[in-house]
Amino acid sequence: MAGGAVAAGVALFLAARFLSGGAGASLAALESASLPLDSALRNGKPTLVEFYAPWCDACRELAPVERDLQQRYGGSVNFVLLDVDNPLWQQEVEEYRVGGIPHFVFLDQKGDALAAAVGRVPDRVLEANVAAMAEGASGGIELPFLNQRAAASALRSAQGVGVDAAAPRAHA
User: Fold this and answer.
1) pLDDT per position in the chain (172 positions), as tens?
2) Which of 40, 41, 49, 59 is catalytic?
3) Catalytic residue among 56, 107, 132, 152
4) How many structural domains does the chain have?
5) 110 catalytic, yes or no?
6) Is 140 a catalytic residue?
7) What's the domain range around 139?
8) Could you tell me the pTM of the whole model?
9) Fewest CB atoms within 10 A around its CB: which of 30, 63, 117, 149?
10) Cα(82)–Cα(122) distance, rounded to whole angstroms?
11) Which CATH number goes with the domain that contains 88?
């Protein structure tokens, strides 16, 4: 009887992980599958850059959506994830004025910013913009959603590093 209960519990756990996106939708998996920023800016494709942090709830919630977009549009759109807690990306955090995460920047083929979306934006915003980037990959890109804002995790410092250890993050 106890063995059956354990087996049922394991089956429910695995089913819940599979239905929620599982390990393949984790931020770490997305980051490891993403293109390095310098390569993305040189290859002539439009690019979606996401500034995120592992502790960001909204970032983790959007991971399955991003995984789906990478799978569908990865051939024509670059996907780049940059951890705001990594000092390596301080210059980019400042350049793109990242004050809340997730912070998405939609870049054209030349690396010029077209639009941004900050926070837990609706899935349809990301989907429509990435689809427009893929369709316009060989020419002009017109995004349906420009400069969207939603609830976001706020950074405590301008560059996302050097945060007070007692309060590593604040939520807006």
Assistant:
1) 655 444 444 444 444 443 344 444 788 889 888 899 999 999 999 999 999 999 999 999 999 999 999 999 999 999 999 999 999 999 999 999 999 999 999 999 999 999 999 999 999 999 999 999 999 877 789 999 998 998 899 886 544 444 333 333 333 3
2) 59
3) 56
4) 1
5) no
6) no
7) 21-157
8) 0.77
9) 149
10) 21
11) 3.40.30.10
